[in-house]
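Continuing from the previous page of notes. For each protein in this section, the sequence appears first, followed by its structure tokens. Read the first protein now.
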Amino acid sequence: MTGRGAAHVGDTLLDGRVQFEAFQDATQWAWAAAVSVSAALKRDLEQQPRARLLLSGGNTPGAAYEALSRAPIEWERVDVALVDERWLLPDDVDSNARLVRESLLRNHAARARFEAITRAGRSIEEAVTTANMHARQAAGVVVLGMGDDGHTASLFPGMRGLDDAFASTRPYVAVDARGCPGAEQWPRRISLTPAGIAPAHSRFLLIRGLHKRALLERVLAGDDPAEFPVRIAFLTPGAPLRVLWSP
């Protein structure tokens, strides 16, 4: 990988909890994300036998994952898992597993070990149990996204059981997002919790677009995660959050 993502529009450090980094276009943003994530994984691999990476789905991160797939690190020692998943089979076109397979698990990263959350014949309770078993190896690097409603993972504003998910001691829980517009036609989901984020030494939030930047300013202006669940990304004790943004 080269320095194609190195040019910044500007950086801002906000009260020690959030570092905001702006890039002038989507290409520089994608390569900057890839360089940052791969550097964090490389540090893990220098210190321990395996590294664990959690990735989000959605429409935003695909280009960053494609750039990351070219990182020349020891991918055979990297476990890749998901921040959340819709209650869909992993080969479904709308699953997060499909996105990760098609964008990241290629080039050098084809050697990584991937953990899909769902599987044919597995109940949602079994899927959660399996995800939590895998999470006994705490993730070092977590890549989050932010929806237009301020959700992250599959934790949505106004969702039933949201407070229970925030308070859970388990890294993953099943959620019911019926009635939440951001969940669209997939209300049944499995989501990472703050307990799953807390151990990570590197937290990234990848966002693009002027609307998301304006929303981020609202998010950073308050401290109630029920209003904007993405606030758990910087309110959960532990590592600071790095936000990478481009228009």
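Done with the first. The second protein uses the same format. Note its length before scrolling.
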Amino acid sequence: MKKILFIGLPYHSYIGAISHEMELMGYEVTFYPIELRKTWQKVLRTISKSAYKSTLDRSLTNMVKKERNNKYEYVVILEVHPFPLDIFKRLRFEHPEAKFVFYSWDALSSIIDYTPYLRYFDKAYTFDPDDAKRCGIGYLPLFCMREFQYLPSGEYDYDVYMVGNMVKPARYKAVMAFEKYCKGKGLRFKKYLKCTPVVMLKLLLKGYIPHGLKLRSIKQTKFVNMMQRSKATFDFANHKQTGYTMRFMENLCVGRKIITNNKRALLEPFYSPDRIHVFDDLNFNGIREFLDKPLKPVDTEGIKRFYIQNFVKVLLS
């Protein structure tokens, strides 16, 4: 059986879903996390970045040693920023016969710079079209998992919902401003925002008094239920980016209305004013009217290109 060495950030259920698609294509998948995710390791990362880095470097070095005698058709890496370049180059040296494929679902910044690694990959993609143009690599948007592709609608108990991680104070400010707008307009807004204690401290230092934040990720069943019972989703990216968030892609494929600050959506073939509302600088004028617009039929075939099946096929094409 053909084999894939898959290395990435174990983020929610997305890695498992990608691995499953690879297996459906006939591959045996071996996965390793590119970050350490146990509770004590997260604590170590907070209190001593140098100690955490040493622990992570040992883990990645051991992975390279363990896998050096295995033959892989593909080595697929989602994100490389915690991967020391010297260890990564050793991995590349140990698997000269494998096709190395890279995908980034983070925007390129001063903190995340994957450009020194690109020369070692046979194929490279990013979710951010501006980064793709700047780096000369492929643009591949994020995806919608199978469980959302034919999700039926329920009764609309909420006008708008939001599920996400609270990483930056700017996102918290935007959500609080939108919640205030909804209350003033009589709109039903439901949110579930996960936040770490470190980010809560940052919010306090910025002068915010955090409320309504959760320390645990939302359960998948609850998330699906919120999506089914809502007309629209509120989308505000954690980072400066031109690529679409995972929540944007999921709701686009499910057929929910999208309220977003990503202006690029206005230029997309899938854009229509009944389906996507783009706000600017926390100006929410017109959203009440947007929610009342009936949805026109969507180009189903055009939307299918954002399914996870197509995403993985492109990676392994």
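What the second structure shows: The chain is about 40% helix and 20% strand. The two ends are 17 Å apart (CA to CA). We return to this in next week's lecture.
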